């Protein structure tokens, strides 16, 4: 058997907005960047579809049940995670039910307006991810 290539780790994150246009973020409980804000997400388990991992991570970190609407993008610049090369698949999701509250490795889960986001300390490259997705026209909005 040919040895497998050394590749980046695969993660997934969920971008969720409420009816008022606020964005759901979590405050990281653990290093790296403990105390910083990030999209809810985490690593994809072996034999797990990235979409399923996104739904699972959102449930674990925020208590929300979500539905994946579409792919938001893929971010994988080397160095985005100081521990190792990580590629994240970001999905745009909608809330099915629940109330946001921090859980698992999230110290807190909160909704932020786009204006409030500007002053936050973000983990990894999540400021860039959020900025790119906030800038997209929303369903039902003039484009």
Structure characteristics:
143 residues; Nucleoside Triphosphate Pyrophosphohydrolase; three-stranded antiparallel β-sheet; 7 strands; 18% helix; globular
Architecture overview:
The chain is an alpha+beta fold and 143 residues long. The protein has a single domain, classed as Nucleoside Triphosphate Pyrophosphohydrolase, CATH 3.90.79.10. Helix content is 18%, strand content 34%. It has a four-stranded mixed sheet, sandwiched between helices. Strands 3-2-7 form a three-stranded antiparallel sheet.
Q: What name does the CATH topology carry?
A: Nucleoside Triphosphate Pyrophosphohydrolase
Decide which structural class fits the backbone: alpha+beta
Total domains: 1
CATH class: Alpha Beta
> Which runs of at least 5 residues are low in confidence (pLDDT < 50)?
none
CATH superfamily: Nucleoside Triphosphate Pyrophosphohydrolase
- Alpha-carbon distance between the termini? 52 Å
Q: Provide the β-strand percentage band.
A: 25-35%
Number of beta strands: 7
Biggest pleated sheet: 4 strands, mixed
Widest sheet, order of strands: 4-1-6-5
Helix content: 10-25%
